[in-house]
Amino acid sequence: MARLADYFVLVAFGPHPRGSGEGQGQILQRFPEKDWEDNPFPQGIELFCQPSGWQLCPERNPPTFFVAVLTDINSERHYCACLTFWEPAEPTQEAVCTEDATEREEEADEGGPAQLSPATPGPPGQLFAPKTLVLVSRLDHAEVFRNSLGLIYTIHVEGLNVGLENVIGNLLSCVIPLAGGSQLDSVEDGVRTISLGAGDRQVIQTPLADSLPVSRCSVALLFRQLGITNVLSLFCAALTEHKVLFLSRSYQRLSDACRGLLALLFPLRYSFTYVPILPAQLLEVLSTPTPFIIGVNAAFQAETQELLDVIIADLDGGTVTVPECVHIPPLPEPLQSQTHSVLSMVLDPELELADLAFPPPSTNASSLKMQDKELRAVFLRLFAQLLQGYRWCLHMVRIHPEPVIRFHKAAFLGQRGLVEDDFLMKVLEGMAFAGFVSERGVPYRATDLFDELVAHEVARMRADENHPQRVLRHVKELAEQLYKNENPYPAVAMHKVQRPGEASHLRRAPRPFPRLDDGMVQWIVDQAAAKMQGAPPAVKAERRTTVPSGPPMTAILERSSGLHGNSARRLEVVRNCISYVFEGKMLEAKKLLPAVLRALKGRAARRCLTQELHLHVQQNRAVLDHQQFDFVVRVMNCCLQDCTSLDEHGIAAALLPLVTAFCRKLSPGVTQFAYSCVQEHVVWSTPQFWEAMFYGDVQTHIRALYLEPAEDRDHVQVGDVLAPEDERSALDVASEQRRLWPTLSREKQQELVQKEESTVFSQAIHYASRMSYLLLPLDSSRGRLLRERAGLGDLESASNSLVTNSMAGSVAESYDTESGFEDAETCDVAGAVVRFINRFVDKVCTESGVTSDHLKGLHVMVPDIVQMHIETLEAVHRESKRLPPIQKPKLLRPRLLPGEECVLDGLRVYLLPDGREEGAGGSGGGPALLPAEGAVFLTTYRVIFTGLPTDPLVGEQVVVRSFPVAALTKEKRFNVQTPVDQLLQDGLQLRSCTFQLLKMAFDEEVGSDSAELFRKQLHKLRYPPDIRGTFAFTLGSTHTPGRPPRATKDKGPSLRTLSRNLVKNAKKTIGRQYVTRKKYSPPSWEHRGQPPPEDQEDEISVSEELEPSTLTPSSALKPSDRMTMSSLVERACCRDYQRLGLGTLSSSLSRAKSEPFRISPVNRMYAICRSYPGLLIVPQSVQDNALQRVSRCYRQNRFPVVCWRSGRSKAVLLRSGGLHGKGVVGLFKAQNAPSPGQSQADSSSLEQEKYLQAVVSSMPRFADASGRNTLSGFSSAHVGSHVPSPRARVTTLSNPMAASASRRTAPRGKWSSVRASGRSSGLGVDVGSRLAGRDMLSPPQANGAPPDPGFLQPQRAALYIIGDKAQLKGVRPDPLQQWELVPIEVFEARQVKASFKKLLKACVPGCPAAEPGPASFLRSLEDSEWLTQIHKLLQVSVLVVELLDSGSSVLVSLEDGWDITTQVVSLVQLLSDPFYRTLEGFRLLVEKEWLSFGHRFSHRGAHTLAGQSSGFTPVFLQFLDCVHQVHLQFPMEFEFSPFYLKFLGYHHASRRFRTFLLDSDYERIELGLLYEEKGERRGQQACRSVWEYVDRLSKRTPVFYNYMYAPEDTEVLRPYSNVSNLKVWDFYTEETLAEGPPYDWELAQGPPEPPEEERPDGGAPQSRRRVVWPCYDSCPRAQPDAISRLLEELQRLETELGRPPERWKDTWDRVKAAQRLEARADGRGTPSSLLVSSVPHHRRSLGVYLQEGPVGSTLSLSLDSDQSSGSTASSSRQAARCSTSTLYSQFQTAESENRSYEGTLYKKGAFMKPWKARWFVLDKTKHQLRYYDHRVDTECKGVIDLAEVEAVAPGTPTMGAPKTVDEKAFFDVKTMRRVYNFCAQDVPSAQQWVDQIQSCLSDA
Q1: Long-range pairs for 697-702 at CB < 8 Å and ≥24 separation?
Q2: Tens digits of per-residue pLDDT, 995-1042?
Q3: CA–CA separation, 60 vs 84, rounded Å?
Q4: Which of 492, 903, 1190, 1191 has the fewest Cβ atoms surrounding its Cβ within 10 A?
Q5: Are 1287 and 1274 in contact (CB under 8 A)?
Q6: Which residue from 156, 131, 137, 142 is spatially nearest to 63, judged by alpha carbons?
Q7: What pTM, to 2 d.p., does this model score?
């Protein structure tokens, strides 16, 4: 029983002691006067009676009532019910307040609780003072208090004849039963009817269970005021310990809202500051740092504005304001949304029906009280779902004398799958939950609704999730129970209490509230107390039971963990792998390892692994050999690396016993345990982990204490959470023990307590040693601090530790004992570990009640334990150092070329993936080849990596990646984590211009100095000081690079000495000519290494005093000169000139007059132009001495010379350097021009003009015309102007992608600038617009195809000069219109360089792309503008080809005449002349245009130290790319294969051969390179020339030959040049990791595979299939095309027969010849598509598809099946327009179908359809009968599958059958579905068809 009310207090207004305008409350009387012993009088009631402050009022207000809550020091709540009424103020009171009347009035106007209803003022000047009746109680019966105080007030106001003392005495002496009415005997006991002696009656019902809060309607009101979302926010805020402040003008509303919020938190109890009504004087409480729930009158809203971290709920306005700095974590999904929807169903039942067409008659909404319980039921369900299974995570640490219980938070979160969830994490860490555990964790106690719900209803809630109606039903059931708890006997609830009359407060009260008689009240109270003492004490009879645990927990949301969904298959792999390890099958285990490591990302697999290992420990297999030990440690580490510090899934906990079990013997008496290898994980340094582990183990042992020995079958705990299948959990045991405890004798109790205490103590010792195992590093001797260990954090100082937050709760007190700054001596490892363990021991022992003696003993023991362990470890550390290191893979030595030497032997490295997606397996399918583990070698020629992939699934594949040292373009250092042990290593990234990238991380055994040495050596080899240091020179020679060999004096004039003399002569000659002017010319190699000799200067001078002998060929050549001449004649240029008929060189060098051109030896001493060849083609009419003058007008003295002549139109192609700018030309005037007037041109300009005139006249078509045309149509010749005159036709072809906009000069006058896009600004007759405007021609040319040859108008210049826009400004236009300037915009070498850099980056990115897929590659390819430059080159070349083809000559005069000029001139010749498309011709072309005409290979390739700054500029590679584009479009026109181009592309940069070294013939002679080849015949020595190498190789293998070569002799190629028609060259993208780049043929031929039958392993012969990886194998070698295959086969057979194998070329030529003969004899002329020479299509791009598709297995792939060649080639033009797709499909049918038998048959259609003749094909391979409309039809009209044919029988003619055919020619084919009727032309063919089909069926 309990008192209804403890104190009755009368509080009145009193003056403020400090005399301020405010008053203050004074307690007039209180009853009883002395405090109750069990309940002292609460302080501060005066403040809470008038929360807004005590003030006088000018008018009489109606009485108010509210309940304030005070919390005392023991956190007991006291409910103060306050009824306030107003009385006229006494004069003393008024005097206090007249001082500041105005202020007071303002305050009253602010509308506190005073102004609840209109009030009438009393007499003017009359003030009213408040007086409050207060009832203080520990019970929350607000209604009863309201009635009781109302009754007292009524008696006073109405003047009833009842003694107030009696009423108050009765009220104070009233006792009511405690909660739990149902446990009492009758209704009378549970329901108390009280009367205060004034004719009143009140019924008090006590709740059934006092643990459930009483909410009345407060929750429902709260939802009405704030709405669902806001209340949920407040709910989460209160649970996660945020500050919540309610504002309202009504005090009653404030206390209701606070009560409602607390009711929602059940079963958790709010344990922070709780003040539903806060008085104004105490507002500073709001700035407290702790969480709170407080209510404040809205009048003080302004004061709450500056609170930064308080969530403010405005009840009157219905808003909740969350400050920016506060984050309220929401409920975990799906609970958040489920709760929200159920709440809306409860609050707004109409919502579900709102959309119905026929809504049911309105349902009765629940009463407010019922709705309140329904809302609470929703939250009760929510908690049951959140905390489901919590009892499985309780650790019983002690049972007696009092239970000590700990909650394993990490296990709970892990098993619920809510580790990441912010909300639950905070709730579990909160104070409320700690209270929940200590209150509800007790195993033996009274249970309530929540216990039932969480134990038994969770499954039902889960099942109901998706059925709203069932959820609602459950909510209503729970609501019923909650309602019954508050109103157990609804029938009895009747009150009868008098109330004051209407507006009674306005009547003048007869008198103030009287002073009561203390004695009388006290007497009544004492009487009642005496009566109570007589009665037996009412013991609250609790029904205590064992609390049900409920089902074990499940995850809140069955999240399949995506990628790592742990299927049974994965667990199977883990199990197999572990069993392999323990069976010693290490190779098998290694293969499974990657799969296991992947699987271990998932929790189930980690669990499975620990269980497997545990089984092996139980079977006494804990002692392992080294390999097993390493393996087990590795998987353990993998398991642990994903564990967070809390170890939610108990993985670390399960591994803890294992790491102290698994071990290996290092030497007799020294054993290393696994723990020394798994220390690097953060979990071991987390105090919470150790606590949870400790408590878990203690629980196991305590449980074992009380179980009968029989029951305790060697119960070993693997995890820390008890498995549900155990017979009795620790909680059950504890519950049983608590029940028996009172019955035990005192001695027995003592004994049990002691047993438990010593159990805990022994566990503490055990854990101290366990912790020392995992915290002390193996090498503790070095005094390495713990904080240096990865993840262990700074265990010393609290300032910046990794574990501070997690330790804060448990270890905070012990932190202040140490400062973080201790001397190095004390701060050793041992000390740190001892302190960590001591803190742990302190905490757990105090919590689990270990005696202080024991604790002291422990403190003494810990340092000894640690010390002993350190000593053990020293021995282990010493022995482990002696272990043989882990067997790293053997270094694979690379194969070297003859003459290639190793400079640096293998440095161990990891080759890392570099972003080529398809290049390394992995994403492109198949296991990843990279990262690979191996070594990098540096040789004189290459950088080579060889190694094995780290992925064991491809462990047998060797990875080789190499590139020539000379190709290195960029090196970059970086730091990287090694793939295996995650250490930070130095890395080096090397990029080469052969599109290889070595991204290497050096192994830890490679010191930084070795890495540095590697870099230096590499640099030295890449940039030798002079060209003789390169591999091509050092190969096979003895001298050291960089020092020229000292030659002995030769006796006879060998070629070597001749060439040296020649150079000397040239130097003398040049020396004499030098005068003042200096300009850049390519430096000779002497300059590159040494200062230039004095007599040698840099440029040909302007001087005229030339010796005639140096320029005119005289018959009196010195013998050495003659030899030089004969050598020059041998050069490629000369051979080609003779082929082209461009002049002969007779022995006397006399001119053949008939020839328009002659070969001039003017440059034989390289005197005029050092970068030109010795012999040049010039017009017959020009004297040699004039050439000297002409050469001055051109850059680098590269004057125009002829390099090719068209056999058909006799037009010539000339090349030269660009013209000198006007400024330079001005220099020439000084000596020659007497008057510098504009009218007279200087001599060299005239020479230039004469020279061009001579070129024009040398052309047969224009020679005679030039005389006729002399001045026709020209009034004035504008002889002297340097600006093109308006009459000269200047055409512009500007590059839309030009880098600098400034180059695009606006067109002036009539010259229109024609853009390549075809939008020409003016279409005149000028060539430019015709050439550039070709995009606007008819549709077939839309993609950049060349226009029809006839498009050039007849009026045409004899010579077009293609020059750079910028240079041509200074050129004199031809007065006779015989030549025309075509200014074009070209890119410069630096743009090529920049573009190539970007191309390299795009093709070999270096790191994986951010967004995988082709898009990013294509984007970066476009950014590089490489294809745009190719487009530009092809465009200009096609332009020149057109001009030459139409009979005009062309002079290409761009830049210095050695980069773009060379590209264009070479391409033009390749496109125009089929000879250059042969192997020999292409060699000649490169030798002539690139080598002899001085393309600066060494400069552009940055071959020496001097060129390092200029960088690599791949002009030649760009040319090869253009050739490759043409090759793709015309595959039948080239004798060489695409591989040949790649080969040249690779070796022009590799410096393996001397061919592509140096910048000109002059430099080659100077080094004695040019003629040595013919001099000393070397033996079989390494090839020095790439051509020699190609020849040798071609004899052995057809790798450079194109089988589809079937040229048309007259064909001029006009390729499409639009970017959309260009393909990225696969040279840039493909890679062969099996053997490195395939261009060094000797290296690429791998060792032959043993024949299948004689495998070394002696197993059965395996299948001959082998997997070919596009990124790993070289596909052309792994899958050779059919022809190569046949040729190889022939060679093999010949060798077997003992014949000397025939050369492949001879065989091939014979086959070709035979093929032609056959075709002719056949008379049908079926063109073989490999040898086609009659396909009229002018592009003949059929081959493109043939090349890309699989090459068929037959030699002759015929194009059409039955007609003669004439029928296909009926109209050549049509064929030319024929779309490639149909050509493709023709090919397809011919090639991919196997036609076993074919012919025409009539076939009867389906029902009611006629007979039709069709072409039938019987295909035995595909087992089909197909039919087509006619013989050449490519589309199959139908297929009969022979598998379905049941029978073939003779048939009978049916209606509509062909009349003329014999009956016996009909036959039927019966299939499962239908019968097909056929009819052949005659009986024999029918018979043949039947036989063929039958044989096909029997074959099957």
Answers
A1: 697/763, 697/766, 697/767, 698/395, 698/397, 698/759, 698/760, 698/763, 698/848, 699/395, 699/396, 699/397, 699/730, 700/730, 701/759, 701/763, 702/396, 702/397, 702/398, 702/399, 702/730, 702/756, 702/759
A2: 999 999 888 788 888 899 999 999 999 999 988 888 888 875 544 333
A3: 12
A4: 492
A5: yes
A6: 131
A7: 0.55
